[in-house]
From TrEMBL:
Protein's organism: Niabella ginsenosidivorans
Protein name (database record): Acetylxylan esterase
Keyword Signal listed: yes
InterPro entries: AB_hydrolase_fold, FrsA_esterase
Keywords: Signal
Signal sequence annotation: 1-21
Domain of life assignment: Bacteria
Length: 465
């Protein structure tokens, strides 16, 4: 009761202070943020929308001194001390949200890419920077020296046979008690070695169980490749070990990269894998992962990041930008990291409904220049779909199918109809549970499985010592 009385007295004092006290330097001209916002609405004739949780109990020092003739400059001055920002939603309408470190103004992103590009004038200088970048990327991910790979056999489910392809689910132990899970799609019949294509999942509902993900991987298999679709960290079956919020921890970025490296280790050791024909494609967060993996792993020969790459967007999830990779070599961005693929073939699919909306205008010409230094300008391509939005829909898949067929030697006719159009109708979309490795309810997860993020950190720290 004493604590409650003191609390009430404190808030009463503060209320009286703000309600009746004259603002001056002694109190740093302080005002409750909610009152400052009301003053902005009155002064500039605007409406400002916000969740109460963002402004509750916040007090702004030197409040009235932050006002300027321009309402947007005023909002920026008022909100910046709290890591908040205002976005215009319509005529005289604004919405307050958390500051997004990863989202820049277009002109700022372009200027930063220009600053970065000015540091090298030829392929020799670029190769030196690329080497520096790669070493730094691995160091920031804490993967300069890979942790030992547990000496355990992969967990593999029975093979499922479909029209022109097969599917089996596989879990690989990448750290003691930590598994990465996925499904391997392979041609029903093939001779000799076949290409390998990694398919990391993006930030869409249903994770890798989505129909579009299954359609893509099965199509690759019908075309003659083995395609591995896998969970991001703390997504899909990884949730048997970790909580959804753990996906937004910075270490997620590292665990995902380590997982992809171990997937490649496993797949490329298979007798029917062609180590000279290795591709990767993913959308959204899976696209950021595609770019990063291509930059740090030379075994990847062809890449296709979808709705991901932009000079003014660094990746909105810690699994994309949580580790400090963008400080490497005095500062880099995702477009320069994408350029590290050169001269290996790369397709960038962009659209008009997200941060890739201006890819053809500035970022893609930079990539063309970088590829031209190797005499391979045509090996970087951009399919821009201005009327489309942020997804991995059929138009985007078609672009990726043709690109992978071109550079991995796949049979595109295997998924075409008599008129030469892409036809996915012969592919079976499985129910989610059929794609599980550990049983319908996770009952087959090994007893020694690590659970909880704190325990993962301990395991990882011990592994990289």
């Amino acid at each position: 009761m004493l604590y409650l009385r003191r609390t009430l007295v404190l808030w009463g004092t503060l209320f009286s202070f703000f309600a009746g006290a004259q603002e001056n330097t002694d109190n740093r001209y302080a005002e409750p943020l909610v009152q400052v916002i009301r003053n902005i609405e009155t002064r500039y004739g605007v409406a400002v929308r916000y969740p109460d949780s963002l402004v509750k109990d916040k007090v702004l020092n030197y409040a009235r001194w932050r006002f300027r003739p321009d309402v947007e400059e005023t909002l920026s001055n008022v909100l910046a001390p709290f890591d908040l920002k205002a976005k215009k939603e319509g005529n005289k309408k604004y919405k307050i949200s958390n500051y997004e470190y990863y989202r820049w103004a277009v002109e700022d992103g372009w200027a930063e890419l220009d600053r970065i590009a000015a540091q090298y004038k030829n392929v020799t200088e670029w190769e030196a920077r690329k080497k520096e970048l790669k070493q730094c990327l691995l160091a920031k991910l804490q993967l300069s020296k890979l942790p030992s790979w547990p000496d355990s056999k992969p967990i593999i489910t029975p093979l499922r046979k479909y029209n022109g392809y097969t599917v089996e689910n596989i879990a690989l132990e990448i750290l003691p008690g930590v598994w990465i899970n996925g499904s391997l799609y392979k041609p029903a019949k093939h001779k000799g070695r076949v290409p390998v294509i990694l398919n990391p999942d993006g930030h869409w509902p249903q994770q890798r169980y989505r129909p579009d993900c299954q359609l893509r991987c099965a199509a690759f298999a019908k075309m003659g490749a083995m395609a591995f679709s896998y969970d991001l960290f703390a997504w899909g079956e990884s949730l048997l070990q970790f909580k959804p919020e753990d996906h937004r921890r910075s270490l997620a970025m590292t665990i995902q990269a380590l997982g992809a490296i171990r997937i490649l280790d496993y797949l490329l050791a298979l007798k029917d894998a062609d180590t000279a024909r290795v591709g990767i494609t993913g959308g959204s967060g899976g696209g950021s992962h595609t770019v990063l993996m291509t930059a740090i792993d030379d075994r990847i020969k062809v890449s296709a990041p979808v709705v991901a790459v932009s000079s003014y967007f660094y990746g909105g999830c810690p699994c994309e930008s949580g580790m400090d990779i963008h400080s490497c070599a005095g500062g880099t961005d995702n477009v320069e990291i994408a350029a590290m693929a050169a001269p290996r073939p790369q397709l960038l699919v962009s659209d008009g409904g997200d941060w890739t909306d201006k890819m053809p205008e500035h970022d893609f010409p930079y990539l063309q220049k970088m590829y031209s230094w190797y005499g391979k300008r045509t090996q970087v391509q951009n399919v821009h779909l201005p009327a489309e939005t942020h997804d991995f829909g059929i138009s985007k898949r078609i672009a990726v199918y043709h690109f992978m067929a071109q550079y991995l030697g796949l049979n595109i006719k295997a998924i075409e109809d008599k008129q030469g159009h892409i036809d996915e109708s012969g592919i079976t979309v499985e129910e989610e549970k059929k794609l599980y490795v550990f049983g319908d309810h996770g009952e087959q997860l090994p007893a020694r499985a690590v659970k909880g993020f704190d325990n993962l950190q301990k395991v990882f720290e011990a592994a990289v010592k």
